[in-house]
């Protein structure tokens, strides 16, 4: 009995899915590449979806799971981070928050807020305040906006969606 073994070669290519980059992807496919590993953004999601669907090629990414508008069509995308949007909604509804401040620092945070807002159209939340931190090293002005009296509630409910653990540490250092 003869057993044939093949060695898997992993090559790293710094290739972003923004025009005019799809041709290098096609060249790699002609050399036997069978999956793409990479990071995508809100701006490149359509291109990634198009390439993976057209060539039926898996795309493995640590990026946020696809938005609800495309989740059914993203059969070739594998997201290494679980989507915790439904869990956030469950917490907001369980705690009965009617007025929520959503603070974030990235396009993924904005995408997650949009997904939450779309999924919560049942009226369980009456009002959202949305603030994007432009610089996590200096958030005082943005926090003052969120802390202004809103005459809606004595209790303030915050969802803080930051892009990294380092960003969380910087924000916590400024609020403590």
Automatic annotation (TrEMBL):
Domain of life per record: Eukaryota
One annotated Gene Ontology cellular component of this protein: membrane
InterPro entries: ANF_lig-bd_rcpt, Peripla_BP_I
Pfam families listed in its UniProt record: ANF_receptor
Record keyword Transmembrane present: yes
Subcellular location: Membrane
Ranges where the Receptor ligand binding region domain occurs: 24-174
Regions crossing the membrane: none
Chief localisation class: membrane
UniProt name for this protein: Glutamate receptor 10
